[in-house]
Amino acid sequence: MFGDMMGMMNKLKEAQKKVEETKKRLDTVLVDETSNDEKLKVTLTANRTFKSIEIDDELLKDKEQLEDYLIITLNKAIEKATSINEAELAAVAKDGMPNIPGMDMFK
């Protein structure tokens, strides 16, 4: 019984370590999103840290239009990054879950 418990605890610690490693790796995964007409481009990490924003000079002439572009493009970029982040972390967590009776809903 205690051997099983120790094995499960070790497996959970390993899973936690893998999750932390994955989070660090996701800092290096870049996600690009561009507006439909390519006047705005944003780059962020899969951990949702913005790295760059490129704005066409034409957009700088119209504050309201620039704001609209930023909202749409940033939201799309964040959605993409979140999807990658959640998929990667879920895969690591799934692999690291010990076989606990009644907890198979996570697999």
TrEMBL record:
**In terms of one coarse class, where is the protein primarily found?**
cytoplasm
Alphabetic keyword roster: Coiled coil, Cytoplasm, DNA-binding
Where can this protein be found?
Cytoplasm, Nucleoid
Coiled coil feature spans: 5-32
Purpose of the protein: Binds to DNA and alters its conformation. May be involved in regulation of gene expression, nucleoid organization and DNA protection.
* Assembly mode: Homodimer.
Q: Which family does it belong to?
A: Belongs to the YbaB/EbfC family.
Q: Which NCBIfam families match?
A: DNA_YbaB_EbfC (TIGR00103)
| Name this protein carries in UniProt | Nucleoid-associated protein GCM10023315_19380
Organism of derivation = Algibacter aquimarinus
Q: What taxonomic classification does the UniProt entry list for its organism? A: Bacteria, Pseudomonadati, Bacteroidota, Flavobacteriia, Flavobacteriales
